[in-house]
Amino acid sequence: MYLDPAFRRVVLRQVHNDTTRMVAPSYGFDLIPVVRHAWKSWGLEMGQHVCVLAVFVTGFMVNPPAILAVASGLGLWHLSRLMVRSAVAVLPLRSKEAMDRLLWRTRWRSESDELRQQTRLLQLSGVGCGVLIVTPPLIAGISQTSLDEMAIAAVLFTLLIVLAVAGRGAIHQLCLNRMHDTGPLRPRKLTRREQTINDQQSHPYVVYRRPSPQETEESKEDLDFDLLDSKTSPFVGSGKLIHRWTPPLTIQLLSSEGGPNISMEERERMAPPFKAHELVAHLKEAMGAMGDASDPTRLRGFDRNDRLYIAEADVPPGPEWLRERPDRDDIGRIVDDPHGIAHHFLEIRTSVTGEVMTTVFLRVSIKGRALSLDFAACALTRTPAEYHLLNAFKENDRSAVLRSAFRGLRNLPAGVAEARSLVEAPSFLIGAALARRNRLLVPRRGATIGAQLSIREEKSVPWNQAQLDKATIYDYMKLIEQRLLKAAEEFLESKKVDTSAFNKKATSIVNMGVLSMGGKIEMKQSAVGANAQVRPDTRESDDSYGDSPME
């Protein structure tokens, strides 16, 4: 929250202030400290902007020439840095252009365009610096003010601005240090909106959004694994869908009693030998040993939950489950109803390192005198490396506070210019005031209550960049998968159900599961056929320099 202002605005607008939609489930983190520190960071930023704005307003009222000189100095600071960067970019481009002319080499249009842009930027910044240099003397002459007096007042106003910016940077780092040194970050008392967020982030019901036909009308080359699985996954907030049994594992509920010559009709029972919720309860109990606190080999961060997934279009107006959570009996009835609008999944999750989350979902249903097991696995990868800055050497002590203060001064003009964000402050405050009322409980025409984003998913490393964690994630997934299969087999045997078909399918899933992990092969810059060639450089040549003599 303190390191990413753009992400902070998303949290405040779409998580805290948006009460028309549910909050996405939280996996491996608590959303309450995130929201609380987002407001603290936003308050620090707005405090700096208010102080800077107060300095400028006071300056215009007391000594307008001096405050104009301050503005000119800040503009000169910004343009001079821009001019230096442009000059550093122009010099090598000019040298390369001269060598290309001398050696009759082909000039690419992108290089010529970049040279023209950097040259234009250098010229404009140079002219701007010249104008800003002569502006203070002109202002002093027009206002008939002594240049020395104006300079003293300008220095005073500049020091006040520096104090505001540096103070905010120091307090910013102090807050980060306190977060790093303290234990639990969860506040003792929650606001009304925070209490609602806390209830929703762990609510059994999860509302997912079905893709509209317009969203699925893509060209064939765009229909890759990411679009087909990740974008349509109902498992909101759990990360990348990395594995799924397709189709689900199904077996006939035939009695194990009798010989092999008995027909299927004779081995079938009119009523199933067990209810679906009984198998779910057995699996939940059997999986608990993997997270036993007394076991040194336990899976870290192990937890089991019941999740009820319902499509956004199927949510009735003002559903009762928003006011009162379903109890065990309600969940059992949903598990036993395979044709209901809500789909029950047994959720089993474990955290590999505290950040990398592996979550397994299993749906148990009995229909058509058969048992169906629908298995899926999702993974949350690590957060970006810059979010772990405090874990580095000398980044959480007193010297870090001083560096943070000077870091704000290094780009002082940009920090002052950001005061324009005060314009949107009223909308944040009004939204926070309105967020005290939970508008989910009020039926509205055309209302959609599904979560629009998961902030943990938004700030996860892309799956194709998590190569070092993939093996660990799949390892944990297979451990949970195999124990689920074994526990289900033992339960079926206890109910005198023939498990021969189940054993064959389970063995096939364990051995061949790698084929359905969701991997894909990409072929780029490939050539097929005799004498086929690939030209990877697709840039356009700059015709203004003529053709190369080799062409």
UniProtKB/TrEMBL annotation:
Stretch list, region Disordered: 527-551
Keywords linked to the UniProt accession: Membrane, Transmembrane, Transmembrane helix
Keyword Membrane (UniProt): yes
Domain of life: Bacteria
Transmembrane segments: 52-77, 121-139, 151-171
Annotated protein name in UniProt: Uncharacterized protein
Organism of this sequence: Streptosporangium album
Lineage start: Bacteria, Bacillati, Actinomycetota, Actinomycetes, Streptosporangiales
